[in-house]
Amino acid sequence: MAKTITWEFAVVGCNLNDSPRYLGFTETYEAAVKIQSNMTALGWRRVAVFDADLKEVKEKPTET
Length: 64
Hints:
The chain is an alpha+beta fold. It has one helix at about 30-40; strands at about 10-15, 20-25, 45-50.
C-alpha cells in the first residue's frame, strides 16, 4: 500500500501584486515558520501559517 502524504500546516503569502499564493505545505509548525521567515526575507508580504482547518496559527500549537 502506498503511503499517504499529509500536511498539517500551509504557508500563504501575498506577492508584490497582493495576490495570495500557497508557498508551501509542511508536517511541522517549525518547518512552516522556516518557510514563512524565508519568504518574508525575499520580500513577500503578509506571510502567514495556517493549520489544516485553514485557521491562522501565530504560535506553536500545544499537543493535548
